[in-house]
Every structure is written in structure tokens, then in C-alpha cells.
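Try this one yourself first.
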């Protein structure tokens, strides 16, 4: 008999906990793996044991995206068992990344913070390079069908929160693994990311996220299992709420810019005065996404002043 088992794991991020899931039926799939580190991995194994399972029972791993609180356990899992890993193709450049790719990404974030008017040495979220050797990875795409616990789940690519975000849904039951695309507990940040190698312009994540939300609103989802918080239903109401929140943020930014041109960091200090240190990046990313939306609507324009970008009302 098919069943879905949530595995709630602790995390040092503001969300408090992160969810992994077991899809148990004719086979056993682990959806997401929790944080990096031995403590988190031991907690994952303990949660498995609570439900009468061990790593030996798992047949495959599927990742909803590759943020470290969802994919951080992969190296530890692979030390104990060879398992096939399924993840969206957009993750291909980040998995087993070289030092050269790591430096390219760090240079992008350094430049983004500088152009925002922030201090890249105080406000960058810099993680040291760590060589990883993921094995047996299969890259999946929109429309692919994966067997989870013997049931067919369709892959829906939902970029925005990250470029590798996917949603997995069963057309028969409406059961859905949403990762961080849809969270009831709090609003999702659409993170600024570097462009793929060889691409000039960065993605515009909030525009992507809004498109993904509208795409998902056309799907008859039922029970939704998110990356953080409890399972929920009625995704249409939640999507409307999230879109309205974005409109309110746009109004806040327009009101701030009504007093004159400002860089992103200045807007961030007015909207999110409690953010300090590395957490400033979260606010900068949020604001840049909304400025992208306002620019598309031709409500703001920008100019470069030395190394900093200044936004003004049109």
C-alpha cells in the first residue's frame, strides 16, 4: 500500500526545520535529504529508524532542488549506500562543480552586492569550496515521469526560488511534493543566481516564480507536501495570497523611490532594517526581484553611478 511519510529535520536556518519525505510502496524513494553535516545525517537515520526503515530500504533519491538544506545529506548518504539520484537538469552546473565554476559564482555575487551598494565582504554568504563527487545522477526535465513508491509522479519545472526547483505530482491522487515552491508557513524568496556558463544575463527569478505559480495554479493538486511546514491543500488560495504579497512589496518600493533615486541596499535598509551581516543578501535578493518586475512594467528605470546601480521612478 502506498504511503507518504514526512521526516522533519532540524536546520540552523530561520525556517527552523526542513522536510524530507519517504514515498513507500512497491519501492522506497527518499525525497530530499536535509542539511549537510554528520549531526543532520544522524538525525535523518534516526527518523528512518522511527518509521521502521534504514538506508538499506531506500531505492532512490529525488531532490526538489539543490539548496543545501535539501541536498546537503547527499555526500553522507553516498558514503553508506550507492543510490541513484534524480534532480533537474538546471542543477548540472552546480553538482560536482570545479574550483573555476565556484570562483565564477562567487565573482557574480561579489559584483551583485557591489552594484547593490552593499559591502561584499560583510554581506556575502560565502561558503568555502568543497569538492564533492556525486555519482549515478540522472537529470530530469519538465514532463518526465518518475516512479515514487511505485506510483507515477510527473515532473513540473518551477524555477524562481531556485533555478533547479521542481514539483512532483500524481495525476491520479493529486498528491504533490512541492519542495520550496509552495510553502504555507511563509513567503518564498526568489533568489538571485548567476547565469549559466556562457550566458550573459542573470535569470530574473521573481518573474520566473510568478510564471511558475500561474502554471501550477492550472494543475488540480490536492494534498501538498512542502519543503518546510505541514502538508496542506487549497493551493489556489495560497497562490493568490503570494501574488498579492508581491504587489504590496512593489507598492512599498515605489513609495520609497518617490522620495528620490536609491540603490538596492538603501531600499533594503528601509524595508528590512533588522537584516544585518550575511542576512542582508536575503533582502537584496527580494528587492532586486521586485525591481525586475517593476522595470518590466516600466514603472522604474536604473542608471549606473560608478559601480552602483541607482533605481528611480520612470
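Now uncover the answer:
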Amino acid at each position: 500500500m502506498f504511503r507518504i511519510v514526512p521526516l522533519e529535520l532540524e536546520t540552523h536556518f530561520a525556517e527552523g526545520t526542513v522536510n524530507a519525505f519517504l514515498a513507500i510502496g512497491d519501492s522506497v524513494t527518499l525525497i530530499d535529504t536535509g542539511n549537510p553535516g554528520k549531526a543532520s545525517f544522524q538525525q535523518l537515520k534516526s527518523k528512518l529508524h522511527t518509521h521502521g526503515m534504514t538506508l538499506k530500504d531506500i531505492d532512490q533519491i529525488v531532490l526538489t532542488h539543490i539548496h543545501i538544506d535539501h541536498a546537503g545529506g547527499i555526500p553522507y548518504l553516498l558514503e553508506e549506500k550507492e543510490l541513484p539520484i534524480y534532480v533537474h537538469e538546471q542543477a548540472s552546473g552546480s553538482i560536482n562543480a570545479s574550483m573555476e565554476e565556484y570562483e565564477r559564482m562567487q565573482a557574480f555575487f561579489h559584483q551583485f552586492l557591489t552594484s547593490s551598494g552593499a559591502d561584499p565582504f560583510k554581506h556575502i554568504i560565502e561558503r568555502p569550496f568543497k569538492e564533492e563527487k556525486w555519482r549515478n545522477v540522472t537529470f530530469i526535465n519538465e514532463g518526465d515521469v518518475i516512479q515514487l513508491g511505485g506510483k507515477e509522479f510527473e515532473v513540473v519545472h518551477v524555477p524562481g526560488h531556485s533555478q533547479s526547483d521542481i514539483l512532483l505530482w500524481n495525476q491520479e491522487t493529486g498528491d504533490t511534493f512541492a519542495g520550496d515552491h509552495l510553502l504555507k508557513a511563509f513567503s518564498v524568496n526568489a533568489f538571485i543566481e548567476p547565469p549559466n556558463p556562457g550566458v550573459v544575463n542573470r535569470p530574473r527569478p521573481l518573474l520566473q516564480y510568478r510564471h511558475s505559480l500561474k502554471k501550477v495554479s492550472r494543475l488540480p493538486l490536492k494534498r501538498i507536501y512542502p519543503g518546510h511546514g505541514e502538508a496542506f491543500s487549497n493551493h489556489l488560495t495560497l497562490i493568490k495570497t503570494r501574488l498579492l504579497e508581491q504587489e504590496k512589496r512593489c507598492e512599498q518600493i515605489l513609495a520609497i523611490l518617490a522620495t528620490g533615486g536609491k540603490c538596492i541596499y538603501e531600499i533594503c535598509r528601509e524595508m528590512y532594517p533588522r537584516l544585518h551581516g550575511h542576512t542582508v543578501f536575503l533582502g537584496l535578493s527580494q528587492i532586486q526581484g521586485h525591481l525586475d518586475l517593476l522595470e518590466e512594467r516600466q514603472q522604474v528605470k536604473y542608471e549606473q553611478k560608478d559601480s552602483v546601480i541607482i533605481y528611480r521612478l520612470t
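Discussion: The domain at 108-125+251-313 is CATH 1.10.10.10 (Arc Repressor Mutant, subunit A). Residues 34 and 70 are 5 Å apart (CA to CA).
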